[in-house]
Amino acid sequence: MLARKSIIPEEFGLPGLASRLPRKPVFRDRVNKARFIAKNGSCNLAHKNIREQGRFLQDVFTTLVDLKWRFTLVIFTTTFVSSWLLFAMSWWLVAFAHGDMDPARKNETHCVTDVESFISAFLFSIEVQVTIGFGGRMITEHCLAAITVLILQNIVGLIINAVMLGCIFMKTAQSNRRAETLIFSRHAVIAVRNNRLCFMIRIGDLRKSMIIGATVRLQVVRKTTTPEGEIIPIHQIDVQTESAIASNSLFLLAPLIICHVIDKNSPLYDLSAMELQCSDLEVIVILEGVVETTGITTQARTSYVSEEIQWGHRFVPIVTEEEGVYSVDYSKFGNTVKVSTPSCSARELDEKPYILIQTLQKSELSHQNSLRKRNSMRRNNSMRKGGGSLRRNNSGLVPSKVQFFTPTEGGQSLNAVT
After folding, report:
1. Which residue ranges run through the membrane (predicted)?
2. Which CATH architecture has domain 178-357?
């Protein structure tokens, strides 16, 4: 038996209508992955399987500076003790070869006086290298070998001291120490500024000594695939900022907001608010400059992943003028406030400018409504206060009599009614 056909055509049925409805794009949840630059500026990168380890020994000074303090102190101590032991052995051999340790030649001329054992030779080696000079042990002019060892130990000791002191100075005056007082906002924001969608961050310097020639660079790092199928895990894309267009350096006297206009050349041009949350991009911020007090170039770094970018927010102002002095409130450094911002991409805003106009109009209307509500609440509060004072004074008021006059039939006399 054949199935009976429906009276309603198939294209107008529920399956047909559902197939023709525009479907919203479905975005996958963003997979948590490691970031390339941590919030404190350290690089999250591990070097493995380095076969040519000898390259690090070709630059010993830089290797010592890059080492941690505990390893550096161990190397320093080992180097000094080794040099003292090496020259102690030399002094002992000189004394032994000359016969200074023979009790039978006690009254004869010695190369080094009072060196009778290896312990005394070790103590004399320390006295020579660190120039203590207690006065009990000394060399004489009768032994050329002792004078030669003395010259060699002084030269080697000066070299070791110079390298170690220079390494300690470089470790204590490293540029990353100055970068600890260069701060970045915890979050980045995207909002409309000057009728353009902009990516903004805030930077600041906690010290009064300035950073000379400060520059800020932005880079977007993401995993990309070329048309040829090549996968680039760390694809770095430079991002232009407004400050870099006007000049090459910043006057970092007070906290500044670094703004990047999302235009056709921006890697954020095609991202909407929803697509940004699902993307795996990372925005790296690099602040460079010269320290005013030491003249050393310093660099501070941070990064922002998609979860740390707030769409539709703006930084609150933190610089105020108080009694002729500009004051910076760092407690509000990372505070943001919500503003009306289209959730579409910058490309869609360029193609449909009316979206921005409608958003701004809605923002203006909501602002006016909030002002009206605020004014009405103030008016009601004032009326309530005034009504309360009237109710308190009603007890002292006496109602006045009101007279109504009615005409008579002749219209001549009037009756008073109270």
Report:
1. 71-94, 144-169
2. Sandwich (2.60)
